[in-house]
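Dear support,

We are seeing what looks like truncated structure output for some complexes. This example has two components. We would appreciate it if you could run it in full and send us the complete token output so we can diff it against ours.
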Amino acid sequence: MVVRTRNHDAVVWTFCRHYIGPVMRARTKRLYAVAGASLLVLSSLALAFIALGQRADLFYTPQMLVERGQPEAGRRIRLGGFVQAGSVDYGAGAEMFFTVEDGSEATVRVTYTGITPDLFREGQGVVATGRFEAGADLFKAEQILAKHDENYQPRELRDLSAAPAS
Amino acid sequence: MIEAGHFLACLSLTLSLGLAYAGLRGDRGLAGRLAFGLFAALGLSFLTLINAFLTSDFSVELVAKNSHTLKPLLYKFAGTWGNHEGSMALWCLVMAGFAAAGAQWMRSGRPDFEARALGVQGLLTSGALAYLLFASSPFLRLDQPPLQGADLNPLLQDPALAAHPPMLYLGYVGYSFVFAMAAAGLMEGRIDRVWARSVRPWAMAAFVPLTLGIGLGSYWAYYELGWGGWWFWDPVENASLMPWLVGAAFLHSVVVTEKRDSLRAWTALLAVMAFCFSILGAFLVRSGLLTSVHAFAVDPTRGALLLAGLLAYGGGALGLFALRAPHLQGGAPHLMVSREGALIGNNLVLSVATLTVLLGTLFPLVAEAFGQALSVGEPYFNLTFTPIMAVALIALPVVQAWSWGKADWTLVWRWALGFLAVVGAFMLAGVALWEIPLLSGAGFALGVWLVFGAAREIWRRAGRVDRLWRFPARVWGMTLAHAGLGVFTLGAVGETALRFHTTLALAEGQSVEVAGWTVQLDDVEAIEGPNWYADRASLTVSRAGETVLLQPQKRIYPAARMPTTETAIHSFGTSDLYLALGDRRTGEGAARWTFEIFINPMISLVYWGVCLIGLGGVLSLLPRRGSGADGGRAAG
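Here is the complete output from our reference environment:
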């Protein structure tokens, strides 16, 4: 039995080497190349979609935070609204605090360490990128965008511009 | 005056339509003359526009909206293209310039092909001119001219930004000519070695200014926005990066077509796509569809027209491609482990990288259509673009030594060990000596690896010192560009990993210690410029044996009713100490001024890297030594 099987294998092997082999090898190589390339493309695309799902910065207004609940701590989001009049405070160092409102009842207290944009003013629109820390209602901003020039509003705020700039 | 410009622009439209007709019919001589005429007419027309800006002729609507008598002369001049209409006029002018340059210097030895390429260029220019004249005319007069203009956006009043748009447009629009040559080649069904050899210099002539233009824009954002960074993955930046990536892929695949006559369909496709991405970029920037820190000359109605143009040109060319591509097989056979294989790999990575940038740039639009506002920033690109490019950069020194057809695979193990050794050494040194994360150490290793790889490759080819100088400029160009990529990587990793950033609030006379530097605020005074006034802080910044005075400003441009930040930068070695002045805070005690202070190590390597890539491109454009007849036009 064993011997016959071996013989059989040898025959198949010889056949492959002489007839199918060259064809197969060229084909297999192309197959490998195509498989490798598609693997690269597909894994990159998968990576891209995972990254989009996890790393895109969702936009919230204070009211949306109430409706949808606060995002998990440490998740980077964009918070948009208007700087409440009289809400800007400065700490002992370079940190500052202000309140963002959007015309609804809801407001969010924001802290930021850094220089504010040239057109950051009370009553003006603002978009702050940052995160909530665990167990805190204070929003820690890393970057603040205000109007770019007198004519430009951050895009997300265009729908809000009807809100009262109290 | 401006009426003459308007008339000349209308004449240009006629000429470019004539160029399209003559060219597509195959009349090389007439097409050439029309291309020269087109460039001359449009050039004169553009001069009248510049003249209107220089003389502050506020009866011209565009000048009234974007200029001011007190503006410095340079910005009156550069203000010509610092707005939507003027920049479109520049776009058309560059297109016509490429048509004229093509008529003069195209060398394929195929008059029919050249005529068709000029014809397609004429068609593209007609579209752009029609858009200029009928949708965004810079030549309109006002019935009642104002006494004073509304001034140029002050962020744009800057030397780097005066040069940035023309550079960028040479790049963007340069790809229109590559597109035209690809379309002409596809019409003839002859995408072959001769085609590849005649297209390559034009692709390079677009790639170099695009590289430098992106570099200038990034440098401007670095010192003018006052955020301390040089790349923000902003949609406008991505819009310029995508044609750059596709253009880089094309420069690598066209070599395969030129040397081995293969990859023909793919090369033609890339030639078409590079310009499509340029128009897509213009569309994204101008339509205001995406939130951008560089928002510039935004107008949604014009966006629709640009989109229509993109669909018409892109669709037409892709349709032509679909017709011809099946007939574009062939070329010398090769294994995957070969220079062809390596360049295909390069193209694969660059295409996938382009795709991830495209996804990240357009995803907010898709999400918004489903009612979810979001933005895609650095975290996304760090997870996708960076690792994908890293794969290519790791492989580059290894695979560039591979020969055509079939390469020696056995040496790869030595390369792999070498790479692991370099990475290991840098990771260890990074953790032990410099206290940086492991990944940053690997990043440094990658930069060094690339520079080493470039040097190794040219040495491998030369073998002896005296042979180094006999190489064709093209080999040196490639070496410099690849080394530049390494230098860029070093700078980018260094700046990201070692950056120090803090915010200070200082009263006058107060001083603090920051990262080994003593920063003292001497005073803040009010100063005045030609068309602005400012608060200027004077800070004495010192460390052992080194004292400098830095004066960051916060300017107000009353005409534009807009403040800007003027940073102060002290460069030491390859690093920058960077100061931006913030607002004045009053409270208990003395009034305090806020400052952002950045220490950006190795930042200048980023720009040196970009310059090296550009220089490499310029070198590879130089003709081969002692072969003046190389592909020259047949006499007569």
